[in-house]
Design brief:
By secondary structure, the protein is mainly alpha-helical. Helices cover 71% and strands 0% of the residues. The chain contains twelve helices and no strands. Helix 1 packs antiparallel against helix 2. The chain is globular, with a radius of gyration of 21 Å.
């Protein structure tokens, strides 16, 4: 299920927000409600990958619990390795196969496994928690809280990457605390802005850009057409990605949760270094602090 799909906009989102506020007086009930909604949201795309998502969470939680019981850093290292091994298999198996084939000259079989949606994001969330745990900067969370942290559907498939200490403390806040009307209005506004940018800008630019790139594979396009394709693609990818982040931030705000900003007008940057500081900032900060 995607944020701009009719099933999400007209059914899933209104029903989930309504259920969340109907159960708002019970912390446990509203958390389980969002966990259930997030699982439905993820499984809607392909239910076969749901065990993989749950497996990442269970391994992370179990190793964290064992680490607290024994104090062995190797448990954290193994948990991080397992998370990254899963990511490497699904995302880079064919890449490594092609390298091995080019080096050895032996035609190795390629994997036909489908890349699970959002695997990079929930892997990075689990790993950041484990590293903070090893640094003494994270507590041992109950399984319910850790699950909600990872599967929370606004950030599950496309970010922004939210850290445990940024979002888990917010789960205790009363959704009906002062300012609820403003949060709902601002969240809905951000969601609509992101939706319009995605549907009316990014998705409208894409066909023309794709046509030029497809033609370039057969023959060299005119200079003006090449520039149109380059500029069009840069706008398409920006509005596609930033719009999704805006929608995610808006949805979270409608639930009374605050996500970090993910894009800060990157094309206004005056240097490449500044550009990467403004583009997908949650990923840049993750790489800076954990890689």
């Amino acid at each position: 299920m995607l944020f701009h799909a009719q099933s999400f906009v007209l059914m899933f989102l209104p029903a989930t927000v309504a259920l969340y506020y109907a159960l708002a007086r019970s912390v446990v009930a509203r958390e389980w409600a969002i966990i259930a909604a997030s699982i439905v949201f993820y499984a809607w795309w392909d239910v076969r990958f749901l065990p993989l998502l749950i497996g990442h969470i269970v391994v992370t939680w179990a190793m964290a619990r064992a680490y607290h019981a024994t104090g062995s850093r190797w448990l954290v290292i193994v948990a991080i390795a397992l998370n990254f091994a899963s990511l490497a298999f699904f995302k880079y198996a064919n890449f490594f196969t092609e390298i091995a084939t080019s080096l050895t000259g032996i035609a190795l079989p390629r994997s036909d496994v489908i890349l699970p949606i959002g695997i990079s994001f929930f892997t990075f969330q689990c790993v950041s928690y484990l590293i903070d745990l090893d640094r003494g900067e994270a507590p041992q969370y109950p399984l319910r809280r850790l699950t909600l942290f990872v599967v929370l559907f606004p950030h599950l498939i496309a970010g922004p990457i939210v850290r445990h200490n940024e979002i888990i403390p917010q789960f205790d806040k009363d959704p009906f605390r002062p300012g609820v009307e403003e949060r709902l209005a601002r969240g809905a506004t951000l969601f609509v802005i992101g939706l319009l940018l995605k549907v009316l800008v990014a998705d409208r630019i894409a066909p023309g850009v794709d046509r030029i790139f497809a033609g370039a594979a057969a023959s060299t396009p005119p200079l003006w057409e090449a520039w149109v394709a380059a500029i069009g693609f840069s706008l398409q990818i920006y509005f596609d990605f930033s719009a999704y982040s805006e929608m995610a931030i808006g949805i979270a705000l409608m639930l009374g949760l605050h996500f970090p900003m993910n894009f800060a007008m990157p094309y206004r940057a005056t240097s490449l270094r500044e550009f990467w500081r403004r583009w997908h900032m949650s990923l840049s900060f993750w790489l800076r602090d954990y890689l």
